[in-house]
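Notes continue from the previous slide.

Worked example: a multi-chain complex. Inputs as given:
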Amino acid sequence: MDAHELSQGWMFFLYQFPLLNSIMMPVIAAVVASRLCDNEHKGQTLKLLNTVMPAGRLFTAKFLCGALYMLAAVLLQLVVIVAVAYAVGFMGTPPFDKLFYYLLFTTAVNLTILLLQQVLSLLFVNQMVPLTVGLIGGLAGLFIMFFPQNLERLFLWGYYGVLMFVGMDWDRVTRITDFYYTPVDWAGFISLAVMFCVIYIIGRALFVRKEM
Amino acid sequence: MSDIITTTGLCKRYGKVLRVKDLDLKVQEGVVYGFLGPNGAGKSTTMKMILGLARPTAGNIAVFGKEMNSRNRLSILKDVGSLIESPSYYGHLTGAENLRIISTLKGVPPKDIDRVLQIVRLENQKEKKVGQYSMGMKQRLGLACALLGNPKLLILDEPTNGLDPAGIQEMRELICSLPQQYGMTVMVSSHLLSEIDQMATNVGIISGGELVFQDSLSTLHEKSRPGIAVRTLNNEAAAKILEEQGVSYQTQDGYLLLSKLGDNELAGYISLLFDRHINVVRIEERRKSLEDIFLELTGTAVSL
């Protein structure tokens, strides 16, 4: 890497990882949610659990368990980012605030997608349904980054792009790529939080009302 | 004896089909209540409604004298053990681990796990993964789960499904012993009449979602009044003679079916037939089997 690339190393990572996440994380979330819920379908344990604990608490417990896995995945990514940065020798001190935003936004999108996947995994016995949603969502999330941001905001899987705070400028003549920080889209973060609440309330109610 | 379960006008509709219609169940304390019905009669649906796993379309359910609703459901179910349709288990965990999960959720001390494992005779298999259990062992594990915490009421839906004959016998003996040994009330469903006959003290028969009989098993047996079947070489002439004597009869499959008669009375009629040169070739006592009664009540062929 040349000096220019090393000076932009942190931004390069904070630009590339959300792109990677938009494909990878929805699939991970779908698999985590499916694994956590499918064992209940396979063993037909929901009808037993529903006689010994409130269904709503089970829903929340499952979500918290899945959330730990998703948080661990992002923390692992951060460790990799920092380790590679030091190994390669990125210039400047680590942008702790930006890394924190990355952790916050990636986790927030991950958890919202995980929540949706959990609702689907609990409602559908056939896990191909939620897994297909996860796969299609991931691909569509990446594709929708080509669309205007207003449209991107309507699509849950597009939020890795909405909450990205690094832009890229590619000079066709010099073929030099420049990265730059953009303002954080707090409105996008709030609309994501609203989505989370809506999915949580509706999904939990659907699960609680589900007859065994 | 007080009623442990009472349902009033219980109905359940799935789509346009009313699967359970105006069910008024009464399960008394300390009995083994056999809930009998052909496949698809609504047994499991009723049991699920009692456990709050399905919401009734209409009607009320009272368990331990308390009307059940979404708020008090779990507090009532603390004293209820259940095994619905098929056993619930985590295949990747051992039997003991499965029971530990349920005992934690039920708030039952861990030492109870060994007790229930002993009751269902799984103590030697407790460290084996449940995925490797046979169907019968899974069924017994399901029963062990239901027995955790020594509940006052057990609701068992076809608990002998998948068991071999020895297992069925063992399960029956166990269910029969529960009221005396542990003071439990057991509601057990089956589509097998003979099974209920051997286990239950009280019976509810459901057919097409409707309760067609509910009383003690002895009352059901009383319905099976014995009769006498006589076969002669000339049934028509014999029938005329019996008519002359004022004996009511029915004809069926070449037999004359008479109601229960005293020995002397029957001997008199038979000798009369001989006197009139009618050769009697068969005299049999016929008792209406429980299957016949079941058929009469449900209008459905019983599954055997």
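Summary box: DSSP finds eleven helices and 15 strands in chain B. The two ends of chain B are 33 Å apart (CA to CA).
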